[in-house]
């Protein structure tokens, strides 16, 4: 991303009011997620998902391009009394932090080359959790634009070195058409 993109996200996070709850999809996975270990939240914004993971007992690293988002996440961590590592990271030009991570989370951010690096930072048995709207979402919503949408049925083909544990694609209770995935490092035979 460019410096212009970073500034656009900084403005967007500066204008956001209040706190946000963790993603409903993430909360549905509560029974499947570890309560100890390391987690990486990629492009996690102000950290509502990262903080939820930290409150559950995980050692969380939150990455985002926006300095404002990372500062908001730090405030949220202080208020919640949980540790949270933060790293300004442009995943379009910089590698993911070194693992191993027991959970890698990426919700509402699409950068197709990211998939090549996920299996390299996941611990054995670790989970990759991903959700992103698909092109069908445009039937009801103008945003995100087509540039930031998965093609319908595209997500499974993007995985590299990962095997699907669960996958759904369709209209969610929140009214978005999303592809949602939980994957693991592929077992070597």
List the main descriptive attributes of the protein structure presented here.
189 residues, alpha/beta, Rossmann fold, globular
Protein architecture, described:
With 189 residues, the chain is α/β, with parallel strands linked by helices. The chain has one domain (3-185): Rossmann fold (3-Layer(aba) Sandwich), CATH 3.40.50. 28% of the residues lie in helices and 28% in strands. It has six helices and seven strands. The chain has helices at residues 3-15, 24-28, 48-55, 67-80, 114-121, 155-158; strands at residues 38-41, 59-64, 85-88, 101-107, 122-133, 162-171, 177-185. A seven-stranded mixed β-sheet has the order 3-2-1-4-5-7-6. Helix 3 links the parallel strand 1 and strand 2 (59-64). The radius of gyration is 16 Å and the shape is globular. The protein starts with a helix and ends with a strand. The model has no long low-confidence stretch (mean pLDDT 92).
Strand content is 25-35%
Q: Between the first and last Cα atoms, what is the distance in angstroms?
A: 38 Å
Number of helices: 6
Q: From the 3D coordinates, which CATH architecture would you assign?
A: 3-Layer(aba) Sandwich
Output the CATH topology: Rossmann fold
Mind summarizing the main beta sheet?
A: 7 strands, mixed
Query: Which structural class do you get from the secondary structure elements?
Result: alpha/beta
What are the segments in which pLDDT stays under 50 over at least 5 consecutive residues? none
Whole-angstrom Rg: 16 Å
Percent of residues in helical segments? 25-40%
Oligomer: single chain
């Amino acid at each position: 991303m460019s410096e212009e993109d970073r500034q656009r996200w900084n403005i967007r996070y500066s204008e956001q009011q209040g706190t946000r709850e963790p993603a409903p999809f993430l909360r549905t996975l509560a029974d499947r997620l570890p309560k100890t270990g390391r987690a990486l939240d990629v492009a996690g914004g102000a950290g509502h998902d990262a903080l939820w993971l930290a409150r559950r007992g995980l050692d969380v690293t939150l990455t985002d391009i926006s300095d404002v988002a990372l500062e908001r996440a730090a405030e949220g961590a202080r208020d919640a009394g949980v540790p949270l590592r933060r790293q300004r990271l442009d995943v379009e030009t910089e590698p993911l932090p070194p693992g191993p991570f027991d959970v890698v989370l990426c919700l509402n951010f699409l950068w197709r080359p990211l998939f090549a690096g996920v299996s390299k930072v996941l611990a054995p048995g670790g989970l990759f959790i991903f959700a992103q709207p698909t092109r069908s979402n445009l039937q009801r919503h103008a945003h995100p634009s087509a540039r930031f949408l998965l093609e319908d049925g595209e997500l499974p083909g993007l995985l590299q070195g990962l095997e699907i544990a669960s996958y759904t694609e369709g209209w969610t209770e929140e009214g978005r058409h999303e592809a949602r995935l939980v994957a693991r490092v592929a077992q070597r035979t």
